[in-house]
Amino acid sequence: MLEKERELKLWESYHSKGDYQAREKLIEAYAPLVKYVSGRLALFLPPTVEADDLFGYGALGLIQAIDRFDPSRGVKFTTFALARIRGAILDGIRQGDWLPRSLRQKERQLREVQQDLANKLGRFPTEEETAAELDMTLEDFRQLLHELSQTTFLSLDDFFPESAGPGETNPASHIPAPQTWEPSHLLSQKEMKDLVAQAIDKLGEKERLVVSLYYYDGFTRKEIAEILGVSESRVSQLHTKAILRLRGYLGSKKGDLQG
After folding, report:
1. Distance CA 131, CA 251 (A)
2. CA 161 to CA 176: how far, in whole Å?
3. Please, are residues 240 and 147 in contact by the beta-carbon 8 Å criterion?
4. How many Å separate Cα 241 from the centre of its chain?
5. Domain boundaries defined on the chain
6. What angle do CA 18, 23, 25 make, to 5 degrees?
7. CA-CA distance, 69 to 145, in Å (whole number)?
8. Topology, domain 4-96
9. DSSP-derived secondary structure for 95-144
10. Distance from first CA to last CA of the chain, Å, rounded?
11. Contact present, 125 and 114 (Cβ < 8 Å)
12. 89 close to 38: Cβ distance less than 8 angstroms
């Protein structure tokens, strides 16, 4: 990254004087952010999604961030850029329309069934209970989780406006506060953080471990598999199930945040 003084001079040269050489230097200096974000998102995406495509989408997001960033607002550029880069990558993926409608429907049905069971039981259901509710064998249910983990993008980061950056851990703890935010908005962000913490506490032990090791400690899927003594495919299943449960739980609590 750039030294603070040199970075400020580049921003001033570009935004005040229209110096496109300064712009190119900023793009080059912050390109590692694109590699970081695209690499993290690629962990739970299917192999049909090309890494080069993710980097390309992210590079466009970086350029947009540089063009739109206002240093005078007191927000760190890395914070601003990470959101733009990630958003550009997700937009590119969604526009590609690579998610089969049938699996999208299955994902929605599974999330609804899990939340209905959670409401009835007062806790998140086990795999066996969910499989029975879906009239599936446990083997078929785990195969469904495998299909979803290979075909859908599911991320805890979806619950927050920003992702943690390189060298930062828990995405839930990194909620930037631009000067333009109202106190009521900041309150809703704190409430969301609290809800996510509550939801994570309700997960099964292995699901909590997967979420913690991946999002809080930065381990890869392969490393998590070695720690838990399971296959990488099983880690993907646990991750998918955890995120579906979190989405269902937070979706049911959305009204609480909205008053």
Report:
1. 21
2. 9
3. no
4. 15
5. 4-96, 101-258
6. 140
7. 40
8. Rna Polymerase Sigma Factor; Chain: A (1.10.1740)
9. HHT-S-HHHHHHHHHHHHHHHHHHHHHTSPPPHHHHHHHTT--HHHHHHH
10. 42
11. yes
12. yes
Comparing CA positions, the residue from 178, 179, 180, 184 lying closest to residue 162 is 178
Amino acid 122 reads: G
Residue 22 tokens, joined: 């300064």
Domain 101-258: assigned CATH number: 1.10.10.10
pTM greater than 0.85 (yes/no)? no
Give the Cα separation of 100 and 108 in Å (integer).
Answer: 13
For residues 25, 88, 55, 43, the Cα torsion angle rounded to the nearest 10 degrees is 130
The Cβ-side half-sphere exposure at 124, using a 13 Å CA radius, reads: 24
- CA 57-60-66 angle, to 5 degrees, is 145
- pLDDT digits 0-9 by tens, 83-142: 889 888 878 877 765 556 777 788 888 888 988 888 888 888 889 999 999 999 999 998
Residue 221 has which token pair? 């899927």
CA 207 to CA 203: how far, in whole Å?
Answer: 6
Q: What is the CA radius of gyration of the chain?
A: 20
The token duo for 247 is: 């989405």
Whole-angstrom distance, CA of residue 164 vs CA of residue 171: 5
The sign of the dihedral angle between the CA atoms of 208, 160, 153, 114 is: positive
Tokens standing for residue 151: 């075909």
Residue 74: Cβ-neighbour burial (10 angstroms; 0-12, 13-18, 19+): exposed
Q: Per residue in 164-211, pLDDT tens?
A: 444 444 343 333 333 333 444 434 556 666 777 777 888 888 888 888
* DSSP 8-state assignment for residue 216: I
